[in-house]
Amino acid sequence: MGLSASQARFLQLTARKSNVEYEAQQISFQRLQLADKEAAASTKYQDATSNRKMVFTFNTGSEIAKVDISYSNYKNYMNQQLDGLSTSQDKYYLVSSSGNKVVVSSEAERDEMIEKNTKLIALEDIENAKAQVAQAEIDGDSSSISDYTKSLAKMDLSSYESRIEGEGEDAKEYYVQKTFDKNDFFIAENLDDVDSFQRAIQEGTYYFAKFEENSETHEQELKTQAWETLGNGAIIEEYDKSDDAQAEAEYKATQDKLQNTDKRLELRLNQLESERSAIETELESVQKVIDDNIEGTFNTFS
Predict the structure, then answer these.
(1) C-alpha–C-alpha distance, residues 247 and 254, integer Å
(2) N or C: the chain end with fewer CB closer than 10 Å?
(3) What 3-state DSSP class applies to 269?
(4) What integer pLDDT is reported at residue 84 of this predicted model?
(5) Total domains present in the chain
(6) Three-state DSSP class for 255?
(7) Other beta carbons less than 10 A from residue 245's beta carbon
(8) If you ran DSSP here, which 8-state letter would residue 65 be given?
(9) Does 180 map to a domain?
(10) How far apart, in Å, do the first and last CA atoms of the chain sit?
């Protein structure tokens, strides 16, 4: 091989070696990306298998049952708005941390709750209650009067709306007792998203409250309670296993795909390493030929 041919071959081998090394660098970078993807898939799998959910427990009369905390289940089992599904002994309201207002999802729901918490009290019943309390005081036996009768007797009718029901001899005067009015409500969006609903409860955006008697005024007031102690453990957290099987299947499928791709890249990288070694060997051989040609030329003309 002449000097010119040797130099051309040397340049070809050098270019090929550069291409091989560049491709090897690209493959190494791709394998790093695959490792990152596998780590992300592993984190996603761990999150899915370690996530927790909030559940509401209650006594059905025959067993202790539980349902996931969602806005729909809150209405069915805790707030008891829907007929036929109420099983909880305590009636809880969802309340906003800002303004202490009852949280609902729409105006229609607000109006329904106002109606469900409205009752008519007959003036006749109020007058009878007052007569019973007065007679009991005369007799010195107020213990025989129920708390409800006492509360009727103490009603300040000036604060209630009156209503006539019926006609003619059947007409009766009632007083409308409303637990809520429209100003007591806050209309919120996205209450049907279970994850965000549970997160709002955990973070204190919403909390639960129930009516309890004020020891000083003897009026019924909404008293809030931390969800961790609600109803002596009515709400608890537990591992959510509903998505574990799907998460495991997705993780294994992703892992197999990434590992197969990594094996192909590793095989190609080994091939490139073998090719690089062969090129380096041939480069050394061609370099020796070039050196010998140069040395021979100098010896001829020296």
Answers:
(1) 10
(2) C
(3) helix
(4) 47
(5) 1
(6) helix
(7) 11
(8) E
(9) no
(10) 22
Please check whether residue 82 is in contact with residue 76, taking contact to mean a CB–CB distance below 8 angstroms: yes
For residue 24, give the H/E element and its range.
helix 3-50
Return d(Cα 204, Cα 91) in angstroms, integer.
19
Q: What is the pLDDT of residue 264?
A: 93
DSSP conformational letter for 278 = H
Give 157-167 pLDDT, tens digit per residue.
877 888 888 88
Residues near 130 by beta carbon (within 8 Å), at least 6 away in sequence: 152, 153
Residue 36 lies in a domain: yes
Instruction: Confirm if 106 and 185 have CB atoms less than 8 A apart.
Output: no
- Which tokens sit at 213? 């008697």
Residue 65 CB partners (closer than 8 Å, separation 6+): 57, 58, 59, 87
The pLDDT tens digits for 171-183 are: 888 888 888 889 9
- Specify if 282 maps to a domain: yes
Q: For residue 272, what are the domain limits?
A: 3-50+246-301
88-114: average pLDDT: 85
Contact 223, 96 (CB under 8 A): no
Window from 50-54, 222-226, 298-302 with minimum mean pLDDT: 298-302
Q: Check if the beta carbon of residue 201 is closer than 8 Å to that of residue 119.
A: no
Distance set, CA 133 to CA 122, 129, 138, 156, 288 (Å): 17, 6, 9, 15, 123
Q: How far is CA 133 from the centre of its chain?
A: 53
Asked whether the CA dihedral 268, 271, 273, 279 is positive or negative, the reply is negative
| Cβ neighbours for 90, distance < 8 A, ≥ 6 positions apart | 78, 210, 231, 234
